[in-house]
UniProtKB/TrEMBL annotation:
CDD domains: LuxR_C_like, REC_NarL-like. This is DNA-binding response regulator. The modification 4-aspartylphosphate is found at D52. It comes from Gulosibacter macacae. Pfam families: GerE (PF00196), Response_reg (PF00072). The lineage of its organism: Bacteria, Bacillati, Actinomycetota, Actinomycetes, Micrococcales.
């Protein structure tokens, strides 16, 4: 996979490069800030962009704003955002305005190499990965969605694991059930949430947004029907 890194911390940036290269990925660019980011994406055509949330010069929301800007030009570009802490407003903005593959992880997750590389693969292949701590905090502040009352406890558990970005196989392993059973649960979740084939956006992402109480903007780009 061709990966572009935008991270101001030189030790973390170089550590990510080494880790990714050892995992047989190609790092096409490693930038210390967002200057030239758009040009690098245009010229290098990466398969995935890894961005820090806080970047120079203000160390506030440069990474999030850069991610949203990339989405406007490359709607399906997989983006993985790294953050030192859970920043709910930034996470919510990015999730709500992103139709393509997305990851939002705390930097502590990088220390678990296997888990981090799994997240890279998941986002790079078009999936969504949210740090469990991000999910937990967003759930604590979510608005009540009455459609969720229709879900069985098993379906809610599947949806929560989906919100963490787990694949059907990973959900099956965690719940000690078959992948076929997971697919049936997900189909029921889609049906009860009113997410039919042809709905605007990826149904898996829309289901997660409903679970987290994040409102999808009316002008969200159509990312295709999405399957279970």
């Amino acid at each position: 996979m061709r990966i572009l890194i935008c991270e101001d911390n030189v030790l973390l940036r170089e550590g990510l490069q080494r880790l990714l290269i050892e995992a047989d990925h190609e790092v096409v660019a490693a930038l210390p800030d967002t200057r030239g980011l758009g040009e690098a994406v245009r010229d290098q055509r990466p398969d995935l962009v890894i961005l820090d949330v806080r970047l120079p010069p203000t160390f506030t929301d440069e990474g999030i704003r850069a991610a949203l800007a990339l989405r406007k030009h490359w709607q399906q570009l997989p983006i993985l955002v790294l953050s030192q802490y859970v920043e709910e407003r930034y996470a919510t903005d990015l999730i709500a305005q992103s139709a393509g593959a997305l990851g939002y992880l705390l930097k502590d997750r990088v220390a678990d190499v296997d888990e981090f590389l799994d997240s890279i693969d998941e986002v790079g292949s078009g999936g969504t990965v949210l740090d469990p701590e991000v999910v937990s905090q967003l759930l604590g502040r979510r608005q009540r969605d009455s459609r969720l009352d229709e879900l069985t406890p098993r379906e809610r558990e599947v949806l929560e694991l989906m919100a963490e970005g787990r694949s059907n196989g990973a959900i099956a392993k965690h719940m000690f059930i078959s992948e076929g059973s997971v697919e049936k649960h997900i189909s029921q979740v889609f049906q009860k949430l009113g997410l039919q084939h042809g709905a605007s956006g990826n149904r898996r992402v829309l289901a997660v947004l409903a679970f987290l109480g994040v409102e999808m903007p009316e002008d969200a780009d159509d990312a295709g029907g999405g399957s279970a």
